[in-house]
Amino acid sequence: MKAHDGMYIGGQWRPARGPDTIAVVNPADEQVIAHVPAGTADDVDDAVRAAREALPGWAATPPAERAARIAALRDVLVARADEIAETVTAELGAPLQLSQTVHAGVPVLVAGSYAELAASYSFEEKTGNSTVLLEPVGVVGAITPWNYPLHQVVAKVAPALAAGCTVVLKPAEDTPLTAQLFAEAVDEAGLPAGVFNLVTGLGPVAGQALAAHEDVDLVSFTGSTAVGRQIGATAGGAVKRVALELGGKSANVILPSADLAKAVNVGIANVMSNSGQTCSAWTRMLVHKDQYDEAVALARAAVAKYVPGERIGPLVSAKQQQRVRGYIEKGVAEGARLVAGGPEAPRETGYYVSPTVFADVTPEMTIAQEEIFGPVVSLIKYEDEDDALRIANGTVYGLAGAVWAADEAEAVAFARRMDTGQVDINGGRFNPLAPFGGYKQSGVGRELGPHGLSEYLQTKSLQF
Ligand code: NAP
Ligand code: MG
Q1: Given phi > 0 = left and psi -120 to 50 = alpha, else beta, which region is 205?
Q2: What are the boundaries of each domain within the chain?
Q3: Pocket residues for ligand 1 (CB within 6 Å)?
Q4: CA distance 369 to 390
Q5: What's the whole-model pTM score?
Q6: CATH number of 251-431: 3.40.309.10, 2.60.40.420, 3.40.50.450, 3.30.300.230?
Q7: What are the tens digits of pLDDT across the range 325-366?
């Protein structure tokens, strides 16, 4: 794999300030495929300075012109889709088809939505005798995870650029090559120098330096709740804006009137996609006691289609593989019943985990409370609707969820009572304009669509 040995700062690839590098590993065969520089606080400082210098010019660029640049960026993402998909497959391990449709495809939709929003959004409002100006927050420090390496980047950078902000990105150490490709795309799209800057590096070094930098106005972070809590505290101490997209433990609630087979099949597919490394995955399947045994049989049959190395890829790293296998062992130890999969690795090489289904899971078990981030689904039995709601809402998280019922209105009535930021009704469909983000400890703030754009704006009221 092609890799840059420098940082993209101020519109050019510059040598890193320090000598350290990060090895990028292909999780399917455990081979080192590239090295990228491990950024230091000095690299971050250079990048923030470049973003600060570019800010006045970009903030003053008319929204229609900002929209045209974002549209050009989208076009480069389209033109380079194959290369993006191959890169995501190489460093994340996702099957190529998933990389093409989701990892390369979704960012095109999101970038396109912000090209349109930048052109159509009202950056000025009237209320009574006031005119309210919606102005860019300033320099954005973006810190992203590896699970959707390009989507997570575009979901921050596109709205930031649409708002008139400038950006410094610190991508995940496991997937820096996709981030370098994105920087190439920004360059090719003709964005002014310094509007977007990339510093690859380790979280506790480059990420920490970016989150704590006094000249960053807003920190937008996606990742674990543990790191998010720390970043929120640092931002709070400095009185700066912060957006946190954190973990989830979402419920897939199958009401008794639903098409059970469809709900179980889509539910299994939802968890197995991307090897379970999706923060919004419906990892708890809630089934009425009278349909429970049938649902378990359906789930066992559905998961058999996910053959490791074919339809389902490895996890991103040995560390994640170990972590997920540890959770599976814990599920067994706490008395859940394995109906598919288990802790043994299904292949000798590569960081694979067996697609795993647990039955007889009770709501308080560790596997029903903590985010596993792997191909593991827990089937939980409920007595009645109120019980289902109590279980669905009974974790510290609230990122996503699903409800299935014969009647849409019945599903919506249940969804209204759920403490969560997104609910798919009878399967739903991805909407790049729908706000995405968490209730409770799943985060602060929203991404995507106009709600995502407003995160990067601040208001100034003029009274007449
Ligand atoms: P993570 O350790 O929190 O990492 C996320 C990002 O933060 C990475 O770029 C990481 O760098 C960086 N980082 C780590 N420590 C840091 C620190 N002290 N200061 C500043 N930055 C730091 O998360 P992960 O384990 O890689 O990703 C999985 C987690 O992310 C899961 O919990 C998942 O639910 C969550 N997630 C949430 C969403 C969402 O939209 N809500 C989306 C995806 C993932 P390194 O790569 O060097 O560690
Ligand atoms: Mg990490």
Answers
A1: alpha
A2: 6-246+441-463, 251-431
A3: 143-147, 170, 172-174, 202-204, 207-208, 211, 222-224, 227, 230-231, 245-248, 279, 371, 373, 399, 443
A4: 13
A5: 0.98
A6: 3.40.309.10
A7: 999 999 999 999 999 999 999 999 999 999 999 999 999 999
